[in-house]
Protein: Translation initiation factor IF-3
Organism: Anaerovirgula multivorans
Amino acid sequence: MGVVPVKEAQKLANSKNLDLVKIAPQAKPPVCKIMDYGKHKYELAKKEKEAKKNQKVVTVKEVRLSPNIEKHDLQVKVNQATKFLKSGDKVKVTLRFRGRELSNISIGKKVIDEFKDMVAEISQIEKEAKLEGKQMIMVLTPKNS
């Protein structure tokens, strides 16, 4: 409509039973639009809700191991991790050292490497195994195939 005085624009909006909405108040002169503001707010909320619906929430599941774990127990933990990875979750593998086990970190490293090899087909490493205090932590993500 071009440059119109504020009072005239307000009268125009009132005559059409609509609202006068400032689009760019910093501009010289300010840019306004005649619209149904309630409908505009509703459509914005609808778009936001739709965007949330399409969002994928990634959860992190944890699998705990110990350095002196038996083969079958390790296989059970691998099966758990496999189930988590197939459902699209990240897996945090935690190997906890207790007491004197901390003096033999190499045993724990072998266990975590064996675990990594067993799930290598369906996962990729996001964070390499690293000793943090009394725990060795590794994070795996599902492979995109």
Q: What stands out?
A: The first helix runs from residue 6 to 15.
